[in-house]
Amino acid sequence: MTDAVSPLPASARMSDPDWPGVVRQLGSDWRLVVSSDAKRYTLQQRVPTDGGPRWVSAGGKSPSTLARIKAKYGRTVKGLAALCDALPLDPAAAAPLVVAAIRAKDAVFEARDVSRNDYARVVARDGQIRLAVDPDGLVYVLQWAKLADARADAPGLRWRRLFDAPALSDVRGFVLDNVAGINGPGRAGLVLGDDLAPRWQAMVDGLPERADAGVWPFVPPIPGPSQA
Predict the structure, then answer these.
(1) What pLDDT is recorded for position 155?
(2) What whole-number distance in Å separates Cα of residue 84 and Cα of residue 34?
(3) Lowest-pLDDT range of 15-19, 135-139, 149-153
(4) Statement to judge: residues 145 and 182 lie in one domain
(5) CB atoms within 10 A of CB 30
(6) Contacts of 120-128 spanning 24+ positions with Cβ under 8 A
(7) What is the pLDDT of residues 166-221, one digit of tens each?
(8) In the prediction, which pLDDT does 191 show?
(9) Would you say 189 and 182 are in contact if contact means Cβ atoms under 8 Å apart?
(10) Three-state DSSP class for residue 82
């Protein structure tokens, strides 16, 4: 069984000397790469800069298809024409591991999206209000959704961010000053201020005062060089 592909580091750029989407190095100053979205080919040339050599798109903006790259640079860059003839038209097919790494990176950022209905660190909820912990485990995140959407609990539901704070007591203060509970129709059915406190307390019972003191469900870290 093969190991899963590591996510592409969030800091990775096509101009990097170690960009993993290199299809073929063509001498010391040219290379053909697959773009960061794996949807196009790019011919790059190495150029000197004050910070050292850097890889840039040929001509400032390389053609994106093999046929156009060959037509424009096939006679200039040794080996390029033959390479273009041998490669699949779909850039993703030329660099499947890069595609997998990009998808793995995208999956990490999706898992870290606090607004997702299925975000892993939702720690309390009461109807259209919920409390989550941010991906770094440092702050509580108070969120709200339209009542009809929250009742539907659809997978595509997105939760709006209302207030962040490292301490639960600070979130409580915001709730009592700004949030209403609904116990009936009209203004008479709203529960406000200190009258809302018992409902809030029931929702967060058992949670630590500080978010960074809790043990929360796993959320993947932002992909970095050590994971690449």
Answers:
(1) 73
(2) 13
(3) 149-153
(4) yes
(5) 20
(6) 120/216, 120/217, 120/218, 120/219, 121/216, 121/217, 121/219, 123/207, 123/214, 123/216, 124/203, 124/204, 124/207, 125/203, 126/181, 126/199, 126/200, 126/202, 126/203, 127/151, 127/182
(7) 999 999 999 999 988 776 665 666 788 898 999 999 999 999 999 999 999 999 99
(8) 80
(9) yes
(10) helix
How many structural domains are present in the chain? 2
- 219 falls within a domain: no
Asked if 147 and 65 sit in the same domain, the reply is no
In this structure, which amino acid lies at residue 156? G
C-alpha span between 98 and 35 (Å, rounded): 9
What amino acid occupies position 78? K
Structure-block tokens of residue 21: 């989407």
Domain that holds residue 104: 22-111
Domain boundary residue among 111, 144, 179? 111
Q: What is the DSSP string of 190-206?
A: EE-GGGGHHHHHHHHTT
Instruction: Give the other-Cβ count within 10 Å of 67's Cβ.
Output: 12
Q: Which residues of 101-125 are buried (b: 16+ CB within 10 A; e: fewer)?
A: bbebbeebeeebebebbebbbbbbe
For residue 228 the two structure tokens come to 């690449």
74, 81 contact by CB (below 8 A): yes
Inside any domain, residue 146: yes
Cβ atoms of 58 and 43 within 8 Å: the answer is yes
